[in-house]
Amino acid sequence: MAIESVVEPLYRKVRQDIVECELTPGRAFSEAELGRLYNASRTPVREACRRLEHEGLIRIMPFRGYMIAPLSVAEFHDLEEMQLIFEPEAAAFAAERATPEELEEMRTLATYEYRVGDRTSYREFIQTNYQLHALIAQSTRNKRLFDVVGNIHIRLMRFFYLGLPFDSYGPALVAEHIRLVEAISSRNATEARCCATEHIRMAMERSASLLMSAIRFGEAVFDANSTLDGTIPNTRSRTRLP
Ligand SMILES: [Zn+2]
Q1: What pLDDT, in 10s, does the model give residues 55-92?
Q2: Distance, CA 132 to ligand 1 centroid (Å)?
């Protein structure tokens, strides 16, 4: 109990710093360094890192410490495909199972007022986007589905925090969210499934044209040619990048 009360806030803080790219993707840390950085002792650091490894946010390097999971084009595409597999069905279940309170909250999240070019607004929008997608998954009442969708979005958010060029597409995203939530609210599972598919397909199209500038923007931390295990991925055949 005592250790858990130390581990949980530490885990949350480190996770937030990884998601917001405050901890640079690909950077290596020793256990002692992380302990100093977060003013924590060895055992909680180890336990927090074990959880973060399970979520795919850090890698444990035996006898050397930890590495913040690098970002790669291949991972981004993998995550988008995972969204396409899970989220349309989640939206369909949500249309059948969401409570009136959840629908109300979805509407609030979907109508977030987005200001193009405003960095604070963009960062808030990234959070709002996460909350909306997580809430839709939660309202399916399927815990496993919620875990999977939540993890996909936690990983995706790292790319959004890194990729300021995504900013200009905010208003289009908001319009898609509103359509999706309207379909869920009207209890139309077929329409909800369609809207979710459309939202993800549109996001994939937008990201294909923006990924290269995101790579340039974050050149030092966003490695186009590396994967989590350090091998060169065969992404050319399945991406639309130049
Ligand atoms: Zn979205």
Answers
A1: 999 999 988 899 999 988 888 889 999 999 999 999 99
A2: 7
Query: How much distance in Å is there from the Cα of 25 to the middle of ligand 1?
Result: 23
Q: In the chain, which residue ranges form alpha helices assigned H by DSSP?
A: 2-19, 31-37, 42-54, 73-97, 100-110, 119-138, 143-162, 170-185, 189-217
Residues spanned by the domain of 160: 73-217
Global pTM reads 0.83
Residue 220: predicted pLDDT: 40
If asked whether residues 117 and 207 sit together in one domain, one would say yes
Ligand 1 mean position to 195 CA, how many Å? 11
Tell me, in angstroms, the distance from the centre of ligand 1 to residue 173's CA: 6
Question: How far is it, in rounded angstroms, from Cα 146 to Cα 133?
Answer: 9
Inter-axis angle of helices 2-19 and 143-162, nearest 10? 50
